Amino acid sequence: MPRDSQIPPVSYLVLGCQPWNRRVFDEELCRLPGKWFYIGSPEELSRQLVRETSPRFVFFLHWSWKVPEEIVSNFECVCFHMTDVPYGRGGSPLQNLILRGYRETKLAALRMTHEFDAGPVYFKEPLSLEGSAEEIYMRAARLSATMAGRIIQEEMQPVPQRGEVVEFKRRKPHESVISTPASLQELYDFIRMLDAEGYPHAFLEHAGFHFEFTRAAFCEGGLTANVKIVRVGEQKEAAPE
User: Fold this and answer.
1) H helix intervals, the chain
2) Cβ–Cβ < 8 Å for 178, 213
3) Segment 112-144, tens digit of pLDDT
4) Four-way CATH pick for 3-168: 3.40.50.170, 3.60.15.10, 1.10.238.10, 3.40.50.720
5) CATH number belonging to domain 173-231
């Protein structure tokens, strides 16, 4: 077959806003067949860019901003939601699940629609909720890449969600304050579920100081954790994902 008559490679667009998303793209996704593009911030995303790349699928590994309706309506957009939808639609799924005592969940590959987390499902895979929030997000990103590969290889058709809808509310920064945990296990879960870059870490304020806790671990007779201390008002604010 003449070179100029060959079929051009299929294009795919990947969006992610965390450093581990980029690592997964570089190490796994861009090695799959086709031509792969990555967008890491809303400033890089434009309707023109999407039209020019003409992607077969647009995959959202972790994205905290509203996607323009024109993109959702005209391209097959796939997001990965950390609940067994329709249970757990909405914001802060990881934190809401851990607060409810879950140690495992499902990662659902959804076709995006105008309604958040309500689109049809390609398929779901088990996902462990053990470890820090960052460890869980990294685990989910790796699994998302594997699921994306399966979607493009099998050309799956998503099916509508079925079951009772349970919606989660996005957590607010002030909800990261440590209040009155009933046990060391509850305190450990609270610290670890907020232990990720870009998320308000678990904190206490006392005597004019802000105490921020990360890297919680059980030790003999109690918990250990890293603590960062600054004066109240000097801490870096972060909005929940």
Assistant:
1) 19-27, 47-53, 69-74, 93-99, 133-154, 184-193
2) yes
3) 999 999 999 999 999 999 999 999 999 999 999
4) 3.40.50.170
5) 3.10.25.20
Residues 6+ apart with CB under 8 A from 205: 177, 211, 232
> Residue 7 — very low, low, confident or very high, per pLDDT cuts 50/70/90?
confident
Predicted structure pTM score: 0.90
* The dihedral formed by the CA atoms of 7, 8, 10 and 16, expressed in degrees to the nearest 10: 180
Per-residue pLDDT tens digits for 28-59:
999 999 999 999 999 888 878 888 889 999 99
The DSSP letter of residue 159 is: B
Q: Where are the domains of the chain?
A: 3-168, 173-231
Count other C-beta atoms under 10 Å from residue 18's C-beta. 21
